[in-house]
Amino acid sequence: MADDPAGGPLIGPVPAPALHVMSFNIRRRMTGLSWRRADRWRHRAPAVRALLQQEQPTILGTQETMPDQARAVLAALGGRYRFVGRGHGRDGRGEGCPLFFDDERLELEDWEQTALSNHPCKSGSRTWGNFIPRIAVTARFRDRVTGDSFIAVNTHLDPFSPRSRVRSADALKTMVGSGPAVLTGDLNAGAGSRTLRELLDDGLRDSWAVAEQRVTASVGTFVNYRAPRPDRARIDWILVTPGVAVERAAINARVFGGVWPSDHLPVHAVIALPVGRGHA
Which of 48, 82, 94, 245 is geometrically suited to a Cys-Cys bond with 272, CB 3.0 to 4.6 A? Predict the structure, then answer.
């Protein structure tokens, strides 16, 4: 754990053709006095801003993001960024899983938000045992530098219902398709879980496991504002389809001014798409 790192970002901006992908559960806004100070958005927002200004990922998938938090993330990233995605409720309100991207590097070709349920086109639907609606945001991008197209999917799976997580994993595999694609998310499941087996046994790869270089130690990603522990599971993931090379991977345990940005640690991967391939 490092506080206010003076040596620059952990990953930071990367030159083409590489893409810096980041997944970050930023913890939904907590404002009431009954919440501990570490949870309150007013307390954490400057640390989130400092983190994002340092890292400047090409693609950022966030989870538990309320509309005002999405605006704060966009402001922290800077003027060349955009995002897609809305809240998970019937009216598009509530927390969401927006995908942020560097619009100078990536051209957005199409995007959609899908309910993880038997009624994927019905906002707010929940049929797989989860009490809170679960969603996935899918975007198709064209790399303005290389001309290649790929899919990015961002999600947040249910922490309480194993059935919901497994059914969601099946739906996510369809969204990812044959690639090239990257899946970011708080999957609320560790490496040995059925959820991860469903995703990894059908061809997706764990960016951490296949990275050429791991910049940090392996620690659990749900730290709850405490020092990271290597004996805890990673529940925040970046998965890639075969053919997508992973140059570096990292779990970001930095704090800023003594403040944790979230109760989750961000995870990073520097990836390279297959040369000359668009999305199938």
Answer: 245
Whether pTM > 0.70 for this model: the answer is: yes
The encoded tokens of residue 129 equal 């045992």
pLDDT grade, residue 279 (50/70/90)? very low
Smallest CA-to-CA distance from 107 within 74, 138, 148 is with 148
Element (H, E) at 73: helix 67-77
